[in-house]
Amino acid sequence: MIKDNQTYFNRLHVVLDGLLVVGSYTAAWFIKFRSPMATTTPGVTAYSMAMYFSVLYYIVPLYLVLYSINNLYTSRRVTRIRNEFAEIIRANTFGVIGVMAIFYISDLGDFSRTMIFIFFLVNIAATCSVHYMFRSVLYHLRRRGNNLKHVLCIGYSRAAEEYIDRLQTNGQWGYVVHGILDDHVPRGTVYRGVKVLGAIGNLKYILPENKLDEIAITLSLNDYSNLEKIVDECEKSGVHTKFIPDYTSLFPSHPYTEDLMGLPVINIRYVPLTNTVNILVKRMVDIVGSLIAIVIFSPVMLFAAVGTKLTSKGPVIYRQTRIGLHSKPFTMYKFRTMRMQSESEEKKGWTTKDDPRVTAFGAFLRRTSIDEMPQFFNVLFGKMSLVGPRPERPQFVEKFKEEIPRYMVKHQVRPGITGWAQVNGYRGDTSIRRRIEYDLYYIENWTLWFDFRIMFLTVFKGFINKNAY
Q1: Angstrom distance (rounded) from CA 337 to CA 367
Q2: Rounded distance, CA 187 to CA 199, Å?
Q3: N or C: which end of the chain has fewer CB within 10 A?
């Protein structure tokens, strides 16, 4: 059973990490003092080799403690590798700060800062590489049926189905669901190969056998009155217990909790851009970015303006009402790409393939996204952002808010010229539901680096739009 092996895996990780710290420190010393680029000689123009290596007695324990604080020795079956890399980098950053502090306090200020920086880089690279290989070996073992966690679900519900879906989709996690106990679903009912074994009362006969690593409580909302009793019974047996709430329909996103003087309060949705600091930082990036874009793309916009004027009758700039932040309407600017039409014609629907309303030059502007460039002025004036959900026309907002769950959540942030949905291909005549899923992910997981990533991807994916008709 995995609970018998986890301790050994953790100990092996600790030993490996300790050896990596020693090895990285040694490599950094040789690079600094023994490579052809070395300009100092240990024991002559620098501390002796013995002095440098004596501090390992402090550095190794410091780093292992930092790794432990950053949860590198807990089970990481369902943690993404990039999250583990981030924790390794964070621990090493604090480690270097700690090492420099030790040198300062110990009056060893002449230790080579270059060597410590090399150690910082080498140790991060080595630790990330070894952790990646270690994880790859475990993934391979789990897919072959080893190093598995044995789980029993209590309650048949949407939560149970989603839990089983994720575990079976990610075989590298090494979870095996042996069955479900439920009082309402008939025994023998099967979901993706997992059977309902009987009633919840059978738990008192299963737990004493001590063959399970985890109990996953996946009760439906109607059975929550039994929750306290089930938790008590599981904890008496000592088996690790998880609670997977069946509130997908109520809490459709990532809820977060806050402590109200000891009372946990669940907030249905976390939106980072409701934070004042985040709002100010994003707005500063928008102002600077839009000004730079206006200057850089001014020749392109001049070309688009002249081309639009020469190829069709009507104004160069097309103004359209869209719904923005806090569901307030604003005027969005674009280069005109269609022939002039009445208001009733315009409201018939969005553009489709081979739409006769689109001019030949307008089709080019749409495919290359040049028609969107006047929106940099919308960004500069504060009505839009460089990155965010695309704004929609009022008549479609009224339609979609009744048809698509959580559609109106997108209006909690400023709309953008580009966005997470757009760089993933959901532009133009594509699925609104999928677009909203990507928009919600962006809204709930916003960071400044996420914005930069989307802008970077837009350069390669966002300008040429095969769905723009």
Answers
A1: 11
A2: 8
A3: N
135 Cβ neighbours under 8 A, 6+ residues apart: 76, 81, 84
Reported as a single tens digit per residue, the pLDDT across 166-216 is: 998 888 888 999 999 999 999 999 999 999 999 998 988 888 887 888 999
Euclidean distance between CA atoms 387 and 422, whole angstroms: 10
- Rounded Cα gap, residues 135 and 379, in angstroms: 44
Q: What separation in angstroms does the CA of 215 have from each of 75, 170, 188, 377? A: 16, 19, 20, 55
DSSP codes, 59-128: HHHHHHHHHHHTTTTS--TTS-HHHHHHHHHHHHHHHHHHHHHHHHHTT-TTS-HHHHHHHHHHHHHHHH
CB 427 within 8 A of CB 413: no
What is the per-residue pLDDT across 89-111, written as a single tens digit (0 to 9) for each? 999 999 999 888 877 777 665 67
Which one-letter DSSP state was computed for residue 193?
T
> Around 141, how many Cα atoms within 13 Å sit in the side-chain half-sphere?
12
Q: Would you say the pTM of this structure is higher than 0.70?
A: no
